[in-house]
Amino acid sequence: MIMEKIELKKVDKTIYREVLDNGLEIIIIPNESFSKKKNYYFSYGTYYGALTNEFIPVGKSKMTKFPSGIAHFLEHKMFESKSDLKPFDFYAKTGSYVNAFTSYKNTCYVVTGNKKMKENLEYLLTFVNSPYFTDENVAKEQGIITEEAAMNDDNPDYLAFKTISRNLYKLSPYNTPILGTVSSIKQITKSDLYNCYNTFYRPNNMFLVVGGAIDPDEVVKIATDTLSRFKLDNTSEIKVKHYKEPVKVVKEYEEIKSNVKVEKLAIGYKMERNKLPIKNKVVLDLYLNMLISLCFGASSNFREMVRKRHLVSRSGYYFQDVDNIITFMVEADVLNDPVYLKELENYLSNLKIDAKDLERIKKVWISSEVIKTDYADSLVDTVVDDLVNYHKVITNYVELIKNMNIDTMNKLINSLDFTNKAIVKVIPKED
Hints:
The chain contains 15 helices and 15 strands. It is of the alpha+beta class. The protein folds into two domains: 4-240, CATH 3.30.830.10; 253-428, Cytochrome Bc1 Complex, Chain A, domain 1. It has a seven-stranded mixed β-sheet with strand order 1-2-3-9-4-8-7, with helices on both faces. The longest helix has 19 residues, at 135-153. The radius of gyration is 23 Å and the shape is globular. The N and C termini lie far apart (71 Å).
């Protein structure tokens, strides 16, 4: 079998790509350094996550809204089986590890091991293509996940995140946690799960990324033979509802009293993507992540200043990509609220990056790209992120990093608007 060879430029790495007749895209990352240990890592995923709650189910004609949290609920129910041998039991017997996760954009089922590669890959493809939902097991799961959701609402960090998301986004499903809410989880039915599964768990909407001590031809043969046992539909176009999120935040300020000793602060600065000078999504993501690293990373001047002055005990900073919106997110445990907020606002108003620091971090990032090729799980995760975010494998990260420059960074910084914001504070209850 002749597969497409993909060269990862400047890192001396070749990966392989095959699209099966049923539409499943397979990316294979063989690693010779793992040949003695026989380590491997599978990630079998679907382009379906918590963002997609309104769509036309396969075989239907009407746009239908489903309860929030259903993608995560479905991921849990995929570990059900008609037989007594459940996926966790199967992989425990083979000395392997299985898990799954749901994000806003995708759901993935992962397996790692160092023996019985064929059996483990066959079983992964089999159980994910064998949904088994009953009224009884759905009701049981509702009890488990609603309890988890209720417990999360008592967690101040989760409460801050949940509230800032709701106060930032009016239409986007980013306004609701991936888990859903107690109310939405209780609405999920067996029929809902089958509608979601049959629409999104189809080969042409899925991917399989495999890395480690594996033979590409063997992987493709196992996948082809295993999936041939199922009647897999790949004919219907998937139609989902898209939202144009308003730029204005929903609610600018909210204060919540909870059982906390230290105040929790969450801030979101919401801005229009089309006002940023970088139009290429891959390049924009690199620059935004570089900005975070230089301005808010562990060794940044701002982090050092707030630590020395005891303004926060913990803080995190990241950009969130929501279709037509880019949001800069801040989460912190605040020891001195007014001073920290003042220093943060002042810092954001005068963001500046030194050209020498940019060149230094670029070298670190390039080294990281090279080192990553020696680790199957790291490279598989990178490819999965590429597929989910860009629907293709990015082969030239080293070149893109090398081409980053201070002029483009400064143009980006000057285009960032930190005036449109929502603030949430979780403060201690009064004695």
